[in-house]
Amino acid sequence: MNHFMEPRSVAIIGISRRSGPGSYNLMENMLHYGFKGKIFPVNLEAREILGFQAYPSIGEVGQQVDLAIITLPRELVVQQVKECVASGVKAVIVVGQGFADADDRGKALQHEMVSIAKKNGMRILGPNTLGVVNNFHHFTTSFMPLHKEKAPIGMICQSGLFFVGARNFTEKIGKGIDIGNACDIGFADCLAYLGEDPDIEIITVHMEGLEHPKEFLSLASRVAREKPIIVFKTGQSAAGARAAASHSGSMAGHYDIYRVALKQAGLLFLENDGRMRDAVRTLLSQPLLQGKRIAVITITGAGGIVASDALERNGLELARLSGETIGTLARLSPEWMPLGNPLDIWPAVMNHEMQEVYGQALEAVLADPGVDGVLCISVALDMEKFGFLDVSECLNRAASKEQQKPVVAWLYGPGKEEIGAKLEERKRISAYGTIEAAAWSLSILRERQQFLEKTPVP
Amino acid sequence: MNHFMEPRSVAIIGISRRSGPGSYNLMENMLHYGFKGKIFPVNLEAREILGFQAYPSIGEVGQQVDLAIITLPRELVVQQVKECVASGVKAVIVVGQGFADADDRGKALQHEMVSIAKKNGMRILGPNTLGVVNNFHHFTTSFMPLHKEKAPIGMICQSGLFFVGARNFTEKIGKGIDIGNACDIGFADCLAYLGEDPDIEIITVHMEGLEHPKEFLSLASRVAREKPIIVFKTGQSAAGARAAASHSGSMAGHYDIYRVALKQAGLLFLENDGRMRDAVRTLLSQPLLQGKRIAVITITGAGGIVASDALERNGLELARLSGETIGTLARLSPEWMPLGNPLDIWPAVMNHEMQEVYGQALEAVLADPGVDGVLCISVALDMEKFGFLDVSECLNRAASKEQQKPVVAWLYGPGKEEIGAKLEERKRISAYGTIEAAAWSLSILRERQQFLEKTPVP
Q1: A280 touches A149 (CB < 8 A)
Q2: Percentage, residues of chain A above pLDDT 90
Q3: A246 pLDDT higher than 80
Q4: ipTM exceeding 0.90?
Q5: CATH number assigned to the domain covering B287-454
Q6: A184 — contact with chain B (CB < 8 Å)?
Q7: Which of B129, B204, B309, B375 best probes binding to A when mutated, by most A CB atoms within 10 angstroms?
Q8: Alpha-carbon gap, residue B334 to B347, rounded angstroms
Q9: Protein fold of A288-454
Q10: How far apart are CA B25 and CA B4, in angstroms?
Q11: What pLDDT is recorded for position B251?
């Protein structure tokens, strides 16, 4: 995989002289990305492309090429693969569509190029792919613009959707591999690479189909002991499975079998497209959940009920708070206030400073041996006028005293984003869009902890 | 309800002289809101509060009072309710906590004040409530800051959470009633009011428990024929039901019975706290869905598969596109491209202008008699450099030619918010945070259509 991810020299076969908006010129994108290795544009007609000497064929480059990227119509690809083999190219990315994702002719072409490569020990990524992104190496083969963040997040996917839409799925990507039709390089190759990569702490996977499930699952259960792996498997419905066959040529069927097998291997399995970002954020910043007893601290009784429902739906339960914890809040609350879990601190807030009450409450529940994790609910108003209700400072102070229990939060009101960002600044507390998402995120911390307990490192 | 929602004169009993940050002074908030009616502060010691003449008791106001708001500790409330009766006050809001939401003493106090009011034909809202908000009358009794938007959205809730957190639940509220413990004014009173209110087009409900289900359900099924009603019922879990009992004193049990009964009455039932905003936006801007056949147009094959899964999960199906529709796209696509539904237009986009292709595709599927609604998937990049990929203009132009079929969209990439806002500008297309949310939103348009078909207006 190093030839794909950290090449020292790259040939771009079939690169166009057109650049700028609408040209989808991957060489322009690569330069913009700051790639420091050698670049050899290959184009029959041009002498120079974007300031680099161009070659009429890969054979005439005359220097070692680690990676060749073929960006040509499908009928021209097999010939180029042959020439790459002849020129000693180590690895090839085939960008274009129209192979196993299309018709019988496409399937035959794909088959032919794989045979040639395998016979000669050359690896192929794709076809039907944006290729790779490696922000630790200032390298990408994508013709679509990406962000350049050195995040400890790896991505293996079968579509550029997850590169370009990173903000929506994983927030950031540090290294990514789009295996496209996966004619040669597949999930297992990429997982082995990212699993051993010290830059990567968490691995996300978009999967349409899986060619060699046994090999992948055995590898995955080993890697999952070291790093969380999150899988978004698509093709759940009959219609989706059909669509997958004509997208990446994948056999996507047997969704329920996938679910069971992947979960058993210790992977976190996502049911729809709304959860990957929360899963990544949570697993990167929160300690695991040692038990399922959650304390809910809330300034709204109604919010506490919503949280109780959400926790139970996600396999967690309300902790039984100790007499000492209840006592801390009882001293601040009116005598008629029934205190329990959810711990409704609003009556206390009506008579004391919000920050004092909330800070004490969080400190007390975190110190309570009957509590494994905490969900905090608070309000987020206009900071300028209602700064006295901003709990980000007091919650962080309280949470810093106990680092072993996850603390998640849900804020409501017009200042949700601003105060949420402050709350997350020290990476001790995570804030979520909904109470449901906060509860679900706690549940995956529990799921991972249970996997690690069940399968200790040998 | 008019005395609560559009009072001409308001007494505030127990209002404090403290104002500014942390005082939670509801009179200050009311003035800030621009209320134009008469305000009589009642305070034993003050002569003047916030520039208004203060009275030592409600009896000494000596003028007609439509609405009295009692903001005093619980032991003092019953006496004030008696004085309100004696002074001919029409309606009372009891703000404070510590009644049926607390202990036996609280239950007894609540019972007593209701008995007095009922005997004398006076109505009580609360206790344990922020009261009301009516943005069409510049009026609120809330001591927490709210937004002042004349939105056609009504809210009935049992917690101020839904007023203060409006951005997170309904985006906006035009009129809202927090029934709190619902000692007298209940869901049915509010629903009757909002049902007949010409300012309100959609009614949202947060429900912990329901005192008189038969009356409510019969009224709701009548109102639902005129306006969509969306219910978020909490207390689903055993823990949540227990928490509800100590929040608003509600009997929240039998969640499944609630679900069946409320859905049967034609109400849209939400399963968690993440969907109310999407439901409101969708029902306010999209036509209903006449059948369940959806066309998916996408620039990413992977996204099309995710959409196929999401549609099936939400009870919808992929439309079978007509030969004419497919032909339109075939003319723009490479000959090897297998075209169907999801309609993957990316290969066409590689050879033609995005806006031309996407506009033609949407126009074609909307004109297709086999299509009931459309889900569009596109990319949203930096507008300045990638304006040529911004589809907001061409999609709106195409969608304006057919007003009877819903068009929903999902965008991915860093420009999601900006281009999403442009896409929604003309209120013809709705954009969502996830593909799952887009598919679910189509499903509620179908659910409402089916309810209306089943129960025609008599």
Answers
A1: no
A2: 89
A3: no
A4: yes
A5: 3.40.50.261
A6: no
A7: B309
A8: 7
A9: Rossmann fold (3.40.50)
A10: 19
A11: 65
Of B248, B272, B305, the CB nearest to A247: B305
Could you say which DSSP state residue B55 is in?
B
Query: Measured between alpha carbons, how far is B449 from B291 in angstroms, rounded to an integer?
Result: 9
Mutation target vs A (from B28, B101, B161, B354; most A CBs, 10 A cutoff): B161
Rounded Cα distance between B387 and B384, Å, is 6
CATH fold group of domain B149-285: Rossmann fold (3.40.50)
In single-letter form, the type of residue at position B355 comes to: Q
| B173 contact A CB<8A | no
How much is the pLDDT for A398?
Answer: 98
Could you please report the per-residue DSSP string of A42-61? E-SS-SEETTEE-BSSGGGT
- Out of A234, A246, A334, the one facing B306 most closely (by C-beta) is A234
- Contact with chain A for residue B239, Cβ under 8 A: yes
Which 3 state secondary structure label does DSSP give B97?
Answer: coil
Annotate A262-278 with DSSP letters as a single string.
HHHTT-EEESSTTSHHH
Q: In terms of Cα–Cα distance, which of A59, A62, A69, A84 is closest to A35?
A: A69
Q: What is the mean pLDDT of each successive set of 10 residues along chain B, which is 458 residues long? A: 97 93 91 96 95 97 97 97 98 96 96 98 97 98 93 97 95 97 97 98 95 93 97 90 76 81 95 95 98 98 97 97 97 95 95 96 98 98 91 98 97 96 97 98 98 80
d(CA B209, CA B187): 10
Query: How many residues appear in chain B?
Result: 458
| Identical topology for domains B149-285 and B287-454 | yes
- Facing B167 at nearest CB: one of A105, A317, A414: A414
**What pLDDT, on the 0 to 100 scale, is given for residue B383?**
85
Angle of helix B213-226 relative to helix B255-264, nearest 10 degrees, comes to 40
Task: Name the token pair of B116.
Answer: 């007095």
First and final C-alpha spacing in chain A = 27
Distance CA(B175)–CA(B123), nearest Å, equals 19
What pLDDT does A262 receive?
Answer: 95
In the predicted structure, residue A81 carries a pLDDT above the cut 80: yes
* pLDDT tier for residue A401 given thresholds of 50, 70 and 90: very high
Domain ranges of chain A: 1-127, 149-285, 288-454
Cβ-in-10-Å burial (0-12, 13-18, 19+) of B419 comes to: buried
**pLDDT at position A345:** 97
Checking phi first, is residue B235 left (phi over 0); if not, alpha (psi -120 to 50) or beta? Answer: left
| CATH architecture group of domain B1-127 | 3-Layer(aba) Sandwich (3.40)
Q: Which ranges of B139-202 does DSSP label H, i.e. alpha helix? A: 161-164, 166-169, 187-196
The percent of residues above 70 in pLDDT, for chain A, comes to 98
The answer to whether B413 faces chain A, any CB pair under 8 Å, is: yes
Say if residues B163 and B144 touch (Cβ distance below 8 Å): yes
The answer to whether A32 and A26 are in contact (CB under 8 A) is no
Cβ neighbour number for residue A24 with a 10 Å cutoff: 17
Q: Where are the beta strands (DSSP E) in A273-372?
A: 293-298, 317-318, 343-344
Q: Residues A139-148: pLDDT tens digits?
A: 999 999 999 9
pLDDT per residue over A94-150, tens digit each?
A: 999 999 999 999 999 999 999 999 999 999 999 999 999 999 999 999 999 999 999
Question: Which residues, at least 6 apart from B51, have a Cβ–Cβ distance to it below 8 Å?
Answer: none
Is the separation of the CB atoms in B162 and B178 below 8 Å?
yes
What pLDDT band is residue A334 in, cutting at 50, 70 and 90?
A: very high
What Å distances lie between residue A191 and A93, A139, A202, CA to CA? 18, 19, 11
A338 pLDDT tier (thresholds 50, 70, 90): very high
